[in-house]
Specification:
The protein has helices at about 10-20, 40-50, 120-130; strands at about 25-30, 30-35, 60-65, 80-90, 95-100, 110, 135, 165-170, 175-180. With about 200 residues, the chain is of the alpha/beta class. Strands 1-2-5-4-3 form a 5-stranded mixed β-sheet.
Amino acid sequence: MSAIAIQPEVLRELVAAALGDQARSTTVTLGEVTVEVNAANYLDVMRKLRDTPGCQFEQLIDLCGVDYSAYQEVGRDGARFAVVCHLLSVSLNQRVRVRVMCADDGMPQVASMCDLWSSANWFEREAFDLFGIIFEGHADLRRILTDYGFIGHPFRKDFPLSGHVEMTYDTVQRRVVYQPVSIEPREITPRIIREENYGGLR
Protein backbone atom coordinates (compact mmCIF):
# COMPACT_ATOMS: atom_id res chain seq x y z
CA MET A 1 0.00 0.00 0.00
CA SER A 2 1.51 3.31 -1.09
CA ALA A 3 1.91 6.29 1.20
CA ILE A 4 -0.50 9.20 0.84
CA ALA A 5 1.26 12.13 -0.81
CA ILE A 6 1.53 15.27 1.29
CA GLN A 7 0.56 18.69 -0.01
CA PRO A 8 3.23 20.46 -2.12
CA GLU A 9 3.40 23.38 0.32
CA VAL A 10 4.12 20.99 3.21
CA LEU A 11 6.80 19.23 1.16
CA ARG A 12 8.34 22.59 0.29
CA GLU A 13 8.67 23.40 3.99
CA LEU A 14 10.22 19.99 4.74
CA VAL A 15 12.75 20.35 1.92
CA ALA A 16 13.58 23.95 2.83
CA ALA A 17 14.18 22.92 6.46
CA ALA A 18 16.40 20.01 5.41
CA LEU A 19 18.55 22.13 3.08
CA GLY A 20 18.72 25.38 5.03
CA ASP A 21 20.77 28.08 3.32
CA GLN A 22 22.19 25.58 0.81
CA ALA A 23 19.03 26.12 -1.27
CA ARG A 24 18.84 29.39 -3.18
CA SER A 25 15.07 29.00 -3.34
CA THR A 26 12.36 26.40 -2.77
CA THR A 27 9.12 27.12 -4.60
CA VAL A 28 5.83 25.51 -5.58
CA THR A 29 4.63 26.01 -9.15
CA LEU A 30 1.74 24.10 -10.72
CA GLY A 31 1.69 21.76 -7.76
CA GLU A 32 5.37 20.80 -8.02
CA VAL A 33 8.23 21.66 -5.67
CA THR A 34 11.36 23.08 -7.31
CA VAL A 35 14.66 23.61 -5.49
CA GLU A 36 17.30 25.97 -6.92
CA VAL A 37 20.88 25.32 -5.79
CA ASN A 38 24.35 26.66 -6.55
CA ALA A 39 26.81 24.36 -8.27
CA ALA A 40 29.07 24.41 -5.19
CA ASN A 41 26.27 22.93 -3.03
CA TYR A 42 24.77 20.58 -5.62
CA LEU A 43 26.30 17.27 -4.46
CA ASP A 44 25.66 17.92 -0.77
CA VAL A 45 22.08 19.02 -1.43
CA MET A 46 21.33 15.91 -3.45
CA ARG A 47 22.77 13.68 -0.74
CA LYS A 48 20.57 15.38 1.85
CA LEU A 49 17.49 14.97 -0.34
CA ARG A 50 18.24 11.27 -0.59
CA ASP A 51 19.10 10.60 3.06
CA THR A 52 17.17 13.08 5.24
CA PRO A 53 14.08 11.63 6.99
CA GLY A 54 10.98 13.19 5.50
CA CYS A 55 12.68 13.61 2.13
CA GLN A 56 14.00 10.12 1.31
CA PHE A 57 14.19 10.57 -2.47
CA GLU A 58 15.52 7.12 -3.31
CA GLN A 59 15.30 7.43 -7.07
CA LEU A 60 16.72 9.81 -9.65
CA ILE A 61 14.14 9.42 -12.40
CA ASP A 62 15.44 12.04 -14.83
CA LEU A 63 18.36 14.41 -15.41
CA CYS A 64 18.74 16.72 -18.38
CA GLY A 65 20.61 19.77 -19.56
CA VAL A 66 18.99 23.10 -20.48
CA ASP A 67 20.36 25.94 -22.60
CA TYR A 68 18.65 29.13 -21.43
CA SER A 69 20.35 31.45 -23.92
CA ALA A 70 17.15 31.90 -25.94
CA TYR A 71 14.85 32.27 -22.94
CA GLN A 72 13.91 35.94 -22.74
CA GLU A 73 13.64 36.17 -18.94
CA VAL A 74 16.26 33.63 -17.83
CA GLY A 75 19.33 33.07 -19.94
CA ARG A 76 20.14 36.50 -21.29
CA ASP A 77 21.04 38.09 -18.00
CA GLY A 78 22.32 35.09 -16.02
CA ALA A 79 24.03 31.74 -16.45
CA ARG A 80 23.32 30.00 -19.74
CA PHE A 81 23.38 26.30 -18.86
CA ALA A 82 21.55 24.35 -16.17
CA VAL A 83 21.10 20.76 -15.07
CA VAL A 84 17.59 19.78 -14.00
CA CYS A 85 16.90 16.62 -11.97
CA HIS A 86 13.65 14.94 -10.98
CA LEU A 87 13.72 12.88 -7.78
CA LEU A 88 11.14 10.39 -6.57
CA SER A 89 10.48 9.04 -3.09
CA VAL A 90 8.74 5.70 -3.57
CA SER A 91 8.37 5.17 0.17
CA LEU A 92 6.77 8.58 0.81
CA ASN A 93 5.03 9.04 -2.57
CA GLN A 94 6.50 12.46 -3.34
CA ARG A 95 8.57 14.19 -6.01
CA VAL A 96 10.88 17.16 -6.23
CA ARG A 97 12.67 18.98 -9.04
CA VAL A 98 16.19 20.33 -8.55
CA ARG A 99 17.79 22.91 -10.83
CA VAL A 100 21.47 23.85 -10.67
CA MET A 101 22.93 26.59 -12.86
CA CYS A 102 26.43 26.03 -14.27
CA ALA A 103 28.71 28.85 -13.17
CA ASP A 104 30.87 29.07 -16.32
CA ASP A 105 29.16 29.37 -19.72
CA GLY A 106 32.44 28.63 -21.50
CA MET A 107 32.92 25.33 -19.67
CA PRO A 108 29.67 24.38 -17.91
CA GLN A 109 30.43 21.96 -15.09
CA VAL A 110 28.68 20.40 -12.09
CA ALA A 111 29.34 17.39 -9.87
CA SER A 112 28.31 13.93 -11.03
CA MET A 113 25.47 12.16 -9.21
CA CYS A 114 26.64 8.66 -10.17
CA ASP A 115 27.88 7.88 -6.65
CA LEU A 116 24.42 8.69 -5.26
CA TRP A 117 22.24 7.17 -7.99
CA SER A 118 23.63 4.80 -10.61
CA SER A 119 20.81 5.89 -12.95
CA ALA A 120 22.66 9.21 -13.40
CA ASN A 121 25.29 7.53 -15.57
CA TRP A 122 23.59 7.61 -18.97
CA PHE A 123 21.57 10.75 -18.19
CA GLU A 124 24.81 12.66 -17.54
CA ARG A 125 26.44 11.23 -20.66
CA GLU A 126 23.45 12.46 -22.67
CA ALA A 127 23.66 15.97 -21.18
CA PHE A 128 27.40 16.00 -21.90
CA ASP A 129 26.86 14.85 -25.48
CA LEU A 130 23.99 17.20 -26.34
CA PHE A 131 24.89 20.30 -24.28
CA GLY A 132 28.60 19.94 -23.49
CA ILE A 133 28.01 19.98 -19.72
CA ILE A 134 30.88 18.34 -17.83
CA PHE A 135 30.04 16.15 -14.83
CA GLU A 136 33.00 16.16 -12.49
CA GLY A 137 33.67 12.71 -11.04
CA HIS A 138 31.87 10.76 -13.76
CA ALA A 139 33.93 7.63 -14.44
CA ASP A 140 33.13 7.30 -18.16
CA LEU A 141 31.98 10.66 -19.55
CA ARG A 142 31.80 10.21 -23.31
CA ARG A 143 29.27 10.68 -26.06
CA ILE A 144 26.24 8.39 -26.01
CA LEU A 145 23.94 9.51 -28.86
CA THR A 146 26.21 11.10 -31.47
CA ASP A 147 29.27 9.59 -33.13
CA TYR A 148 32.58 9.78 -31.25
CA GLY A 149 33.97 12.09 -33.92
CA PHE A 150 30.96 14.41 -33.81
CA ILE A 151 31.82 18.11 -33.62
CA GLY A 152 29.87 20.33 -31.22
CA HIS A 153 26.81 19.77 -29.06
CA PRO A 154 23.56 19.64 -31.06
CA PHE A 155 21.07 20.79 -28.36
CA ARG A 156 22.84 24.11 -27.82
CA LYS A 157 20.75 26.95 -29.18
CA ASP A 158 23.60 28.21 -31.37
CA PHE A 159 24.23 24.84 -33.05
CA PRO A 160 23.43 25.07 -36.79
CA LEU A 161 20.36 23.13 -37.91
CA SER A 162 22.32 21.35 -40.62
CA GLY A 163 25.36 20.60 -38.43
CA HIS A 164 29.01 21.16 -39.30
CA VAL A 165 29.97 17.98 -41.18
CA GLU A 166 28.24 15.05 -42.83
CA MET A 167 29.25 11.45 -42.58
CA THR A 168 29.30 8.92 -45.42
CA TYR A 169 30.70 5.45 -45.91
CA ASP A 170 33.52 5.32 -48.46
CA THR A 171 33.46 1.92 -50.21
CA VAL A 172 36.99 2.37 -51.58
CA GLN A 173 38.55 3.25 -48.21
CA ARG A 174 36.10 0.88 -46.47
CA ARG A 175 35.50 3.30 -43.64
CA VAL A 176 33.38 6.22 -42.53
CA VAL A 177 34.61 9.61 -43.75
CA TYR A 178 33.62 13.14 -42.76
CA GLN A 179 33.26 16.07 -45.14
CA PRO A 180 31.77 19.58 -45.00
CA VAL A 181 27.99 19.75 -45.11
CA SER A 182 26.76 19.85 -48.71
CA ILE A 183 23.19 20.89 -47.86
CA GLU A 184 22.48 24.52 -48.67
CA PRO A 185 20.77 26.10 -45.65
CA ARG A 186 17.35 27.56 -46.38
CA GLU A 187 14.37 28.67 -44.39
CA ILE A 188 11.18 26.74 -45.03
CA THR A 189 7.92 28.49 -44.24
CA PRO A 190 4.86 26.25 -44.18
CA ARG A 191 2.08 27.12 -46.60
CA ILE A 192 -1.01 28.36 -44.79
CA ILE A 193 -4.39 28.01 -46.43
CA ARG A 194 -7.12 30.17 -44.96
CA GLU A 195 -10.69 29.27 -45.78
CA GLU A 196 -13.77 31.08 -44.65
CA ASN A 197 -15.93 29.09 -42.26
CA TYR A 198 -13.33 26.29 -42.05
CA GLY A 199 -14.64 23.62 -39.69
CA GLY A 200 -17.79 25.65 -39.10
CA LEU A 201 -15.84 28.49 -37.44
CA ARG A 202 -16.41 32.13 -38.23
